[in-house]
Amino acid sequence: xxEFIEALRFLTILPLRAPFNESALxxxxxxxxLAGLFIGIVTSISFLIMSRISTRxxxxxxxxxxxxxITGGIHLDGFADTLDGIMSRRDRxxxxxxxxxxxxxxxxxxxxxxxxxxxxxxxxxSGVPVYTLLLSPVIGRFLITLSIYLFPYARITGKGSIFSGxxxxxxxxxxxxxxxxxxxxxxxxxxxxVFAVTVISGLIFAGxxxxxxxxxxxxxxxxxxxxxxxxxxxxx
Length: 236
Hints:
The structure is a single chain. By secondary structure, the chain is mainly alpha-helical. The protein has one domain (about 30-235). It has helices at about 1-10, 20-25, 30-55, 55-70, 75-85, 90-100, 105-125, 130-150, 170-215, 220-235. Helix 3 runs antiparallel to helix 8. The mean pLDDT is about 90.
């Protein structure tokens, strides 16, 4: 339970009153998919309510706003910073320096535009938007857990450094089982297939970032999550 609370505290802007537990936070990536399910439930409820009082297009737009708002836009910000860094054609240190800069660049702004646009189109054109909204955040957060386990952290310090070395094989297996079960329950066989394709695509993206930077950062985790979400949205 403590791990789930810390996962929600880390991945959302919910004002949780529970005392901070650093040990639980280190282990919390094992339950990131459950935090993703919580986000999915919130966005699904938003879509169901808005679709009853407005058009599907407006419901999709408001739902997307709720989705990014509940996370504080941290993953979207990480996606933008990652694009600014890797598109700069600089060396490792130059990329890390650009990602550390709080200002957004041309590539980052363009990336946000296309990322939000693709999500909106996927939601508004989905055959079963509620299932899509439920499962996509789950898969996206599992990719963060998987990336933390597989790739080293690129900085000595940073928001994501607390997870370095904290995820063991059994933690990853636990997270994987949760995600597969949720994929099967929500999306049936199609959900599992989409999960598998998204994991492969996400690993290719994460591997490329790792090769360019020599590890991953918190911004990269956010970028990988956004990438996985939009892939699963488009496929579902």
